[in-house]
Design goal:
Layout: E1 8-18, H1 43-46, H2 57-69, E2 73-74, E3 80-83, E4 93-96, E5 103-109, E6 115-125, E7 129-132, E8 145-148, E9 155-161, H3 168-185, E10 197-206, E11 216-221, H4 224-243, E12 251-256, E13 261-267, E14 277-278, H5 289-298, H6 303-311, H7 319-330, H8 334-342, H9 347-358, H10 370-381, H11 387-398, H12 405-411, H13 419-432, H14 434-441, H15 446-459, H16 465-475
The structure holds zinc ion.
Length: about 475
């Protein structure tokens, strides 16, 4: 979508990610999604009088992993109480990091080369979950509301970007890349549909060169598609408002996926409304430099480096292959491609099979050994089996039909076609398709595919297309 002439968007994202810890941030309750409501609670996460928080070391480590991956400075930090009433926050305040966050001043590079600043990535606790029993799930018109405190006290890292993003598509690219980074650090499972990663978008509009306009915050966007649509809608709403003589009011807005529009949720609070003060029950957090170093050295490669690693394997990467590389990295399946390259196999075939056949069974990767994958691509590359057969073999291996590609090929009747038999078949096809053969000989290259198609039909996909073309060329 493009904006009316003379306008640009200014977008900053706040991304909340739940950390993959065993227990909650300040108590020993299990950190598990999808359990019976109110079964993982205790006096600490319910905020009962007299209970005291104890900081979770694993949460601190995961927060530092995120900060390191985002090139942040890890510094001594403190915990504050953010005071507000909400039914799913029973102690009436949320423990969060305020003026001294654990991570600050980093950046994230997007695949297109844009660098987005990271202002901070701080630790805080999640709230419980309220379910309003109304048609749209909103409080208005609800007869009842239910509260589940299992999520209360689950560790979160909130990652706040600088207002460096200029289009909704770029916001989406940032969110997708950040999600991949969070998964790569091991800090998050990245599951948007379970709320493990949630997006808030700060959107304003201006004429280029002007100071920033008044921003609105759209809360709780839970898919990349919603994020992009909500930002586009909100920017146009603000431009319409300004062009018709109105002014944007700073507020928090709700995105309605069904209606495709944002609406006022509440007029924006300022930081002072929350009466932040240091939590007297928690000491300052100052990780030992040795621990910070250990975290830095234990981080695996980030998605950007992994994509670059795959690109190096291919001489002239096509746009389709760039997409395939994204899919392979997103799937954490690039080891299949690297193993094929090490075995001297066809990297293009391997990449294509990973981005298509392997990607279509993302939960079955454990069934497909690297050896089997390399063997299937070798069989396809050498012409032992056709591309169609290679796809069927991979699907079979991923479905658990067997674990030996050779054996599976035999059981499916994928015997290699004798070259004599293929030669004979092509001869017959030339004799019965004289017109097409004449046009092919006259230089109409498209007819090669016609003959390949005929051969595939006659052999039920068992022939090797490249071998057919070689025969045609030889006879020409
Ligand atoms: Zn608890």
């Amino acid at each position: 979508m493009s904006l009316p002439d003379g306008w640009e968007m200014v977008i900053g994202l706040e991304v909340h990610t739940e950390l993959l810890t065993e227990s909650k941030l300040f108590c020993g309750c299990e950190n598990r999604f999808g359990e019976e409501p109110n079964t993982h609670v205790c006096p600490v996460c319910l905020g009962l009088p007299g209970s005291l928080p104890v900081l979770n070391r694993q949460a601190v480590e995961l927060a530092m992993r995120i900060g390191t991956a985002l090139h942040c400075t890890i510094a001594p930090s403190t915990f504050h109480r953010k005071n507000y009433f909400y039914p799913d926050q029973s102690k009436d305040y949320q423990i969060s990091q305020y003026d001294l966050p654990i991570n600050s001043g980093g950046y994230l590079d997007l695949p297109d080369g844009t660098r987005v600043g990271i202002e901070r990535a701080h630790l805080e606790e999640d709230t419980g979950k309220t379910t309003h029993l109304s048609s749209g799930g909103r409080l208005q018109g609800a007869e009842r509301s239910l509260v589940d405190y299992n999520r209360c006290g689950v560790p979160l890292v909130e990652i706040v970007s600088a207002p460096d993003i200029r289009t909704a598509a770029q916001a989406r690219a940032y969110a997708a890349e950040l999600r991949s980074v969070l998964i790569a650090t091991g800090a998050s499972d990245g599951r948007l549909e379970e709320g493990s990663v949630r997006f808030d978008a700060n959107v304003s509009v201006r004429r280029p060169g002007e100071p920033f306009g008044t921003r609105c915050e759209i809360k709780n966007l839970n898919s990349l598609r919603s994020l992009q649509r909500a930002i586009d809608f909100e920017a146009l709403r603000q431009i319409d408002l300004i062009e018709s003589g109105g002014a944007v009011r700073q507020e928090t807005r709700h995105w309605d996926e069904g209606l495709g529009e944002t609406s006022t949720l509440r007029v924006k609070e300022d930081a002072e409304d929350y009466r932040y003060f240091r939590d007297p029950d928690l000491v300052d957090l100052a990780p030992e430099p040795a621990w910070v170093d250990e975290v830095r050295h234990s981080l695996p490669q980030m998605p950007a480096q992994r994509r670059a690693g795959l690109r190096e394997l291919i001489a002239n990467v096509t746009p389709a292959q760039l997409d395939a590389i994204d899919v392979a990295v997103e799937l954490s399946a690039e080891h299949y491609v690297h193993a094929t390259a090490r075995a001297g196999g066809d990297v293009s075939i391997a990449l294509s099979r990973v981005a298509n056949e392997v990607a279509s069974a993302p939960d079955s990767l454990h069934r497909l050994t690297v050896e089997s994958f390399v063997e299937v691509t070798r069989m396809e590359g050498s012409g032992e089996i056709s591309a169609t057969q290679a796809k069927i073999l991979l699907a079979g291996l991923l479905a658990g039909e067997g674990d030996d590609p050779q054996e599976l090929a035999r059981s499916k009747g994928f015997e290699r076609m004798e070259s004599g038999a293929l030669d004979e078949l092509v001869t017959t096809l030339i004799e019965t398709n004289v017109d097409e053969w004449t046009r092919y000989r006259a230089g109409d290259e498209k007819l090669a595919q016609f003959f390949v198609g005929q051969v595939m039909k006659a052999t039920r996909g068992q022939a090797n297309g490249k071998a057919v073309i070689a025969i045609l060329e030889a006879r020409r």
